[in-house]
């Protein structure tokens, strides 16, 4: 992902927020026989306050990626969507796509069985906890033997990134009135209504202006 000073996202707390809100990551590596990508849910490491993340892959994806032996890239995609040139007013303009994305790169650490179980448990709890009657990993009808078989088919990892590229391209290079017009258009009814992207643009704009519209 090419970086641009106008769109750089460097605040660790904001990058953590993007990862936490968008845990479905693309895992990319470059083995000798060509690029390979997989898709898994990845969480921030609860024991750290940096950008360390934990997750797992199913076997044999660990071998395909050379997990623990070579660099991988984790790509997290935040809110994104189409921006029409008609929203800019009567000025020369072309369409664009606004988005927020985070790329973390490094060689991951392979987790022990006990650590992997803890991460799997945390993944289940993270998503089941939103339901009125959550089915947690260690609760019946699951039993210990079932959980052990589940764990043995996965390889857990922890990645403390050695390279971070985070980008928030949300019309920051446009005048404030244009940004407000785009936000309003994203909130309006229509084929490109996108409340999540509008909220992300509002957040970025408020950070730049101190909340002054």
UniProtKB/TrEMBL annotation:
Domain of life: Bacteria
SUPFAM superfamilies: FMN-binding split barrel
Family matches, as Pfam families: FMN_bind_2
Gene3D superfamilies xrefs: Electron Transport, Fmn-binding Protein, Chain A
Species in which this protein is naturally found: Microbacterium paraoxydans
Protein name, UniProt field: FMN-binding negative transcriptional regulator
Recorded coiled-coil stretches: none
């Amino acid at each position: 992902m090419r970086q641009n000073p106008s769109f750089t996202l460097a605040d660790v707390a904001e990058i953590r927020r993007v990862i936490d809100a968008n845990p479905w990551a693309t895992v990319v590596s470059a083995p000798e026989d060509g690029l390979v990508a997989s898709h898994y849910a990845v969480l921030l490491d609860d024991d750290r306050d940096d950008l360390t993340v934990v997750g797992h892959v199913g076997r044999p994806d660990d071998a395909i990626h050379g997990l623990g032996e070579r660099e991988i890239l984790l790509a997290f995609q935040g809110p994104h969507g189409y921006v029409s040139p008609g929203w800019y007013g009567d000025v020369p303009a072309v369409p664009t796509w606004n988005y927020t994305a985070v790329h973390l790169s490094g060689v991951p650490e392979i987790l022990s069985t006990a650590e992997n179980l803890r991460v799997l448990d945390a993944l289940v709890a993270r998503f089941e906890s939103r339901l009125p009657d959550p089915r947690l990993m260690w609760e019946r009808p699951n039993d210990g033997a079932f959980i052990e078989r589940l764990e043995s088919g996965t390889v857990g990892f922890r990645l403390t990134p050695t390279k971070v590229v985070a980008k928030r391209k949300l019309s920051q290079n446009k005048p404030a009135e244009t940004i407000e017009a785009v936000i309003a258009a994203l909130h309006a009814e229509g084929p490109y209504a996108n409340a999540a992207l509008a909220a992300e643009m509002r957040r970025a704009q408020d950070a730049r202006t101190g909340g002054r519209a």
